[in-house]
Design goal:
about 200 residues; alpha+beta; 3-stranded antiparallel β-sheet; single chain
Length: about 200
């Protein structure tokens, strides 16, 4: 194809889209949309009868590629709790890392603390709190260093490494020396170096 051509090929794109209008199975709707892709950029409109509480695209990872989720904060918080697939809830957690509202921090903290949530979603919530980097986010991450699941503690340690404060270094040094999981301890040690504190390398 020559430079400037709209696309070197065309194909049919089938994408699963889920919407939620409330709490419970009856409030979820899934549909498979099919669009003809003929250019490198497309905008697709999905008509709905009412404003949904959340919208999830490709919840079961059928499409190979990256998906960036952008939606109002209230819809992302609802998706974090109500979406039926772990992938959709994780997408919401990652997207919420770009929001700094108190309600968002509280929602992420609730997910991080929940022992019933999938560990991957809890890890994504930890990462989002690490991106927010507020005092409240730090407090929730510090407490989550005591989480029972080691993969959650690893994610928490990695998130704390972005704070670059003496308090973060203190808690990471403790985890690096004393966590029962060698993988968590190793992650805490790496995160400790990321804090760039003068005494981090002596811990």
């Amino acid at each position: 194809a020559a430079v400037g051509d709209p696309a070197p090929f065309t194909f049919d794109l089938e994408l699963d889209v889920g919407t939620g209008t409330g709490v419970g199975r009856g409030a979820r709707r899934w549909r498979r949309e099919r669009w003809l892709v003929t250019a490198t950029r497309h905008t697709f409109a999905l008509p709905l009868g009412e404003r949904p509480r959340w919208v999830a695209a490709d919840p079961e990872l059928r499409i190979i590629g990256q998906l960036e989720l952008r939606a109002p904060a209230d819809m992302l918080r609802a998706q974090l709790v109500e979406a039926p697939s772990a992938r959709a809830r994780r997408q919401a957690a990652e997207a919420l890392g770009r929001r700094h509202e108190p309600a968002t921090v509280a929602a992420l903290a609730t997910t991080l603390r929940s022992s019933r949530a999938f560990w991957g979603v809890r890890a994504a919530a930890a990462g989002a709190l690490g991106k927010i980097r507020s005092e409240e986010a730090f407090g929730h991450l510090r407490s989550a260093l005591r989480a029972r699941h080691p993969k959650v503690r690893r994610a928490v340690a990695q998130a704390l490494g972005g704070f670059r404060t003496p308090a973060a270094a203190k808690h990471l040094a403790r985890a690096a020396r004393g966590d029962e999981s060698v993988l968590v301890a190793a992650s805490a040690a790496r995160a400790l170096g990321s804090t760039r504190q003068d005494d981090a390398y002596e811990a």
